[in-house]
Amino acid sequence: MNILLIGSGGREHALAWKMKQSQLCSRLLIAPGNSGTAACGENVAIRPDDFQGLKALALREQIDMLVVGPEDPLVLGIWDFFKNDPDLQHIIVVGPSQEGARLEGSKAFAKAFMQEFGIPTAAYREFDAAQMEEGLAYIAAHSLPVVLKADGLAAGKGVLICTDTDEAQREFRAMLGGKFGQAGSRVVVEQFLSGIEFSVFALTDGHSWALLPEAKDYKRIGEGDTGLNTGGMGAVSPVPFVDAELMDKVKTRIIEPTVRGIAARGMAYHGFVFFGLIRVDGEPYVIEYNCRLGDPETEVVLPRLQNDLVELFVAMAEGRLVEVSISSDARAATTVVLVSGGYPEAYEKGKPIGGLEWVEGSMVFHAGMRAQEDGQLLTDGGRVMAVTSYGADFREALALSNVNAGRIFFEGKYHRRDIGLDL
Ligand code: AMP
Ligand code: GLY
Fold first, then answer.
1. Index of the ligand 2 atom closest to the CA of residue 297
2. CB of 290 shorter than 6 A to ligand 2
3. What is the pLDDT of residue 354?
4. Measured between alpha carbons, how far apart are the two ends of the chain, in Å?
5. What spacing in Å lies between the alpha carbon of 159 and ligand 1's midpoint?
6. Are 334 and 234 in contact (CB under 8 A)?
7. Is the pTM of this model over 0.90?
8. pLDDT, tens digit (0-9, with 9 covering 90-100), for 336-391
9. Cα separation, 83 vs 393, whole angstroms
10. Residue 398's domain is classified under what CATH number?
11. Is residue 179 part of a domain?
């Protein structure tokens, strides 16, 4: 098969690395990709939101399968664009329809969906600008902390956990006043859940589903989970506290009703559902849905997945996921993300990267990285690379990733050394 993968982060490098191993993959193109994906296939300089450009590429290269890494093209309707075009509709698209992607693209949509199908989540109300006074009164009566969420995609910045009422009301006004543009035209106000978070990934055809290894990511910039939120500083899989009993509850109370809800609503959904979950007093609740794999979770989930990923995508497209059995590596995997100095605030790009040749026993997934014409690798983003290792347990895997992270150098390099150590 000729496969086109879109995206350019560490997640996409891991997807490209995994699909390249498939017997079914004859050619792999990545748009636009990065220096890591270039080693797995051919990078093509087309942006993920340039649907016309992707169409021309898909036709020219006789693409059989489109795999969508990030959420933006899904929320913009890339599935619908391909399926509504007679020249493209034969192509397998891994990712939900625009309607399905609203599970990630609209927090209000996701909350209403969970409520309709009885899926455990924090109690909430949603408000638009016309309901400003009602919302302020609701917040005044709400217990603290209170969680405010801009309805739409806000580049990971749209969630605020407020510990005092004045601050919550001020932020609520700012959101409805346009702080996040259109994304904040509606605001979800919800109950704060106190517990420990973890992530579960299912591949679904909208009726049946297959469960991938679970993971836990670390979003804060500082060790001990302190400081600003980031896209993700590291991840582990498996997650020690996710035992069979908790996973059974996740399956019966969350995954099954979600897939039943997708079917009941008649939503076209052929792709990943990423369940952002929290365990509160032993019970799982949904914090959020995403319509794609996580980054950096993918950099530990795919190294542990032993199935052929392209075969799984074909089974999904043919409605045969029930026949699939997922097997995962018994070893633990830990990934440590190396970031540019200053991230997640202002940082510089273009710093030469060295030392990769000294890495031993870990895999390096490129994220914000590019190669100069002479082959010199340069930093090209906040999250620069993810260093993944296996170990008998996640501590052993972490130790190896930390050693190898120390062998890589670029000006301003920073990484956390404590990924998973709270578990
Ligand atoms: P989200 O953008 O929905 O992933 O939210 C970002 C982060 O905010 C989550 O990963 C949680 O750590 C936190 N969060 C969101 N909603 C809640 C909630 N209801 N209770 C506690 N923490 C939350
Ligand atoms: N690591 C969290 C995410 O991909 O949304």
1. 1
2. yes
3. 98
4. 41
5. 7
6. yes
7. yes
8. 999 999 999 999 999 999 999 999 999 999 999 999 999 999 999 999 999 999 99
9. 44
10. 3.30.470.20
11. yes
